[in-house]
TrEMBL record:
InterPro entries: Methyltransf_11, Methyltransf_Superfamily, SAM-dependent_MTases_sf. Residues 65-161 form the Methyltransferase type domain. This is SAM-dependent methyltransferase. The keyword Methyltransferase applies.
Length: 262
């Protein structure tokens, strides 16, 4: 596998990430499923739990869309709080894991396979939308996703989403001491790309600076109402990729944006 930085099209990014998540879903759920819980709403590797954070506010009786739902863990938690939930994901294999959990728990979370840049939902269908590291870091056009979320939200509807903190892109993705020294420009927005042996993109992740995210939110018609940078909690010693206690106690790993449709 080769790794590099280069521009990719929307189609290249979608094709690469659909294939990557289909191939990695089993290992991902095996590694992280206990941490996420079958019916838990964990915003980030720091372990911020919506049951404690209440970033979405009151969810009972609300129609909620989960953007990039994976195996539906967040959606199940929302449904248990009295919300009416729909979820979607680009990866069919991730949705099969959602069905697996449904069968083991007796639930039935409504999910559909879809691309976040073109949502298959009617205008004004939802009171709330949420995304815990779903879709937005992986799409070529995050502005299209935000505009689509704006479209499917009702007036005064809210969207809360978490992504890798932009500052992390200036550092190697290393949970140890090697990940403490910046080695690239924070302002280099060239996507991170992994390539198959024949040179075709097989995984793509996109970097946006903090000001990029704010600009995309505003240009979509949403209003930014809050920003959370979760601190690494005492007693949390679990490493998740480049997230670790060592790094987490020095600089943020996650940014959570709270938005509202006027």
């Amino acid at each position: 596998m080769d790794v590099g930085r280069r521009a990719v099209s929307r189609a290249e990014a979608a094709t690469a990430n659909r294939g990557w998540w289909d191939g990695e879903a089993d290992d991902y759920q095996a590694e992280h499923g206990e941490f996420l819980r079958d019916d838990g709403f964990i915003w980030c590797p720091e372990g911020l739990d919506e049951a404690d954070a209440h970033l979405l506010g009151e969810v009972a009786g609300r129609n909620v869309l989960e953007v990039g739902c994976g195996a539906g863990q967040c959606g199940r938690w929302l449904a248990a709080q009295g919300a009416s939930v729909a979820g979607f994901d680009l990866s069919h294999r991730q949705l099969q894991h959602s069905r697996r959990i449904d069968l083991s728990t007796g639930g039935a979370l409504p999910v559909v396979q879809a691309d976040a840049e073109v949502l298959p939902f009617a205008d004004g269908s939802f009171d709330l939308a949420c995304s815990a590291f779903g879709a937005l870091p992986f799409v070529a056009d995050a502005g299209a996703v935000l505009s689509e979320v704006h479209r499917v939200l009702r007036p005064a509807g809210r969207f809360v989403f978490s992504v890798s903190h932009p500052i992390r892109w200036a550092f190697p993705d290393d949970p140890g001491p090697g990940g403490l020294t910046a080695d690239r420009s924070y302002f280099d927005r060239t996507p991170y790309v992994e390539f198959s042996d024949d040179g075709v993109p097989s995984y793509v992740e996109h970097h946006r600076t903090m000001s990029d995210w704010v600009g995309l939110i505003v240009s979509s018609g949403l209003t930014l109402t809050g920003l959370v940078e979760p601190e690494w909690p005492e007693g949390h010693e679990q490493v998740w990729g480049g997230w670790s206690p060592l790094r987490g106690r020095l600089f943020p790993g996650t940014a959570i944006f709270q938005c509202r449709r006027p």
